[in-house]
Amino acid sequence: MPHLTGSWVCRLLALTVLCWAPDARADAVFGYEPELNFKQDYPREKNHKAMAIGPGGLSLMRSGMKSAVAAQKAALRDCQRELTRLRWTKAGKCELVAVDDKFVWAKPSVGPPLDVALPLPDRPLNKAKIFASQHTGPPKGIVLALHGSENNYSVSSAPYSFQKSWFDYFNSIGFQVIFPSTYDDVIPAYEYGGWNDPSTYAKGTFMNKLRLAQTKRTISVLKTRYPGLPIYLWSHSAGGNIAQAIDSGIAGAIIVGTQCGIGSPSLNLISKDVPVLYIYGENDPKIFRGSNKVTLARLKVFCGATYGGKLRQFVIVPEADHLTPLWRQNVLDAVAKFFNQNPFSLANPKSRFELSDAAKKAYEKTYQTTPLKKAFAVGKSGYGFSASLSDQSEANIEALLKCNRAVTGLSYPESGKHECSLYAVGNKANY
What we know:
Rossmann fold, disordered N terminus
């Protein structure tokens, strides 16, 4: 990684704050989660109180004490105990951030302030990929997509199949998808250690705070560019930690493969009157530490009562993992309801359609020579095939959706069902 000083990065951001420097130790960092915790939760604590933080984003608050000294001792003691439980004591020790209403943290800040939108130009938005509505006329709304950190440091090769599964639906119901490339800003590469690894936490905090400031700026620009249109967030993985820190300007959020809350369930800045739909693959190893099994019962216990209302919903996707596509009936049903759309059936119709000359040529010359999991779909006036997926069921659906688009102009026709049927699955004709 190139050597960047804090002042150089801040000049880049046109901000007069002291930012992360590359020689920062892996000890206590007043990072993304602790700062949000201090902003949202700490002011609500009553009587004498204190907040302590440790490596890896660990933060503890104690309140209701008889004195400031007692609160300070309790916060440091319990923080250190948690540090021991996590086996992070070699990374550093716990330190005080605040006592009563006094902020006592004196070390440099990491990244831009939480309450600002970055100044223009908006490079990620200028280099964004745009997926247009499949309807004629202006879009009904905007979906701002926030990618994760899965070896995808720009959107140049996007969308991947699971992303496309979502974007096609948004486009079909009249929404335009805007996919900014976070890492196209001139910044250090994002080093994500997972589970708030103390050794990379300062760098992760810098990236998260930068992304949050970028996203706030982008939302502001989009509101000017598309006045009156609702803006929804679709986020995946690390992008969900950004989405849950957006406290205004959005009509709703769909969060895929991210815990409820940012580090803890209580840390969620999305207004309670804004609908949020959480999508979890049943076999996602990144939701619960040390386990790759996600269940509704476990989510309800972890997330608590604040996520039990009509505006906070969970969907568990059987056999799916961290890259959860929309191509599951229970997910599609939940998303259609989220946008007040009629339901759509993913089932393959039993209709039979003859191959046109163009379809026959594509089937014989291109499709049959492709070795991957694949499917070929045919409709009254068009065809479509998929030959790029590793899962056969997803290849089947993608072929149907491509054929739908060729026949009706919409991947998800307004009839509520596929306007095509599967002609072949793999190298075997289906009828």
